[in-house]
Request: fold
Amino acid sequence: MTVRWGKCVNRNCEDAQNGELIPISEEEAFLCPQCGRPLVRENAGRPTKSPTPIARTSTSAAGPGALSPPPWEPPAPSTPAPPAPSAAAEKRSMPLPLIAGGLLLVLILGGGGFFVWKNLLGAKSGEADPHMTILRLAGSNTIGEELGPALAAAFLKEQGATSIEIISGAKPEEKFVKGVLPGDSAPSFITIAAHGSATAFTALAEKTCDIGMASRQIKPDEATKLALIGDMLSPASEHVVGLDGIAVIVSPSNLVDKLDKDQIRGIFTGEITDWSKVTTFHGAIKIYARNDNSGTYDTFKTLVLAGKPLAQGAQRIEDSKALSEAVAVDPYGVGFIGLPYVLSSKAIAVSDKGIPPLLPTRLTVSTEDYLLSRRLYFYTPANPANRYTRMFIEFVISKRGQDVVGNIGFATQNVAQISETAPDDAPQEYKQLTRGANRLSLDFRFQSGQTTLDSKGKADLDRVVSMIADENASGEKVMLFGFSDNADDADVSQAQSLTRAKAVEAELVQRGLKPTTVRGFGSKLPVAGNDTEDGRDRNRRVEIWIKK
Reply:
């Protein structure tokens, strides 16, 4: 029996913390028996019947969604190879027919290799060879670093695949997820090229990927360029994978614990250059930032920099982990990163005008109350030619797929009840109604002047109904509380907040659930400043509470 050795990289897993090598037979999925996460292949000098895979590097230029071909595993020879003859002896003894046959074999293998390479780089046929690449993902490094491979491995397992492995490509941002599907003898591959959110839309346009990964929403000009394959803002093409909070990070040795958004902007634009301006110690601030292709950087520019340029001299880093590790060991460093990549660095609490500071946690991110929370997206053609595209998306947004999102460290969209106490400045009626009740781990949000839900809201409604049904609760326990921004006078804000709460009520009634309490509280209890459009978007929301 062939045995493969691997290491678990889930920092919350006991096996990973102990650094243990784990033996897995060829017939079993290459997953950690302790936590179920995919293992990283390790040879460690132990005997094995097949060599450790080696990534092949393509020398041909290709689009942003293209990858070097995945590794292949040549069979081990059954008998020892004889000593190689000298070049002179080989030249004397090799007959002409053998030379001709060898050349023919090289041409055949070379041609076959070309077609394999072409398929793996994403030939624009829409259908991959079932024994080769079945799905191609390109875009966000935040998603592609760990979440994309973990979802791909879990998806293959869901399809009944065996011998599942995550294999590094020729570049750190490229990975291949391999598994043998039922009825197949050869492995199938899911390829992941994580070079930044901007490359997701280029790859979709060039048809070098099936799914674009983005840690920000698609921009209008990008959506226009992709209009031929569908409305990128429609539920058919835009899929929320999970929720993330952009954490502002410093070294654990740094004394700062919280900053407001104006201070963060001043630091990253170069207006504040010494820590003594925001805390009690002195030292020149060193800035670490993601590269220009990064969706994390793009979101940070929108939410924090407000159109101002990043400070000159900032160290730009493409890889999320590398940036976090650099900040963790630099007592004067500061950076920003996705929630799962805080790692050994320290996340600080972020506040806004009149809003208490909040740390990026799964709760504050899942409700989108944290000021720098954001959504993670998969974008697809509205009618994908590749049948695995729709299958993969359906798995990702399912409860099982969302469990994977949570295991990686992002905020899952699976609904949970949270025990929470109303703030001191809350309206008296709100305090009375929520006393002894639990808040659900999501809010419904609305664009200015609108009462219709977006693609995430529609999916969340189904999740809420499923959760309540699973817990044998009834509509008599469900309460909806609407809130608005302060763009209008108090009466208009009050009416809008109630209208939005009733819009959610109508959707729940259609799904067989009738809430018992529906209230509007106007512009009370803002979770962000109302001086920006993003802040007003966060304040236009409907909370769901469940009576115990």
Summary: Residues 3-49+122-239 form one domain. The radius of gyration is 27 Å. Residues 7 and 20 are 7 Å apart (CA to CA). The first strand starts at residue 3 and ends at 8.
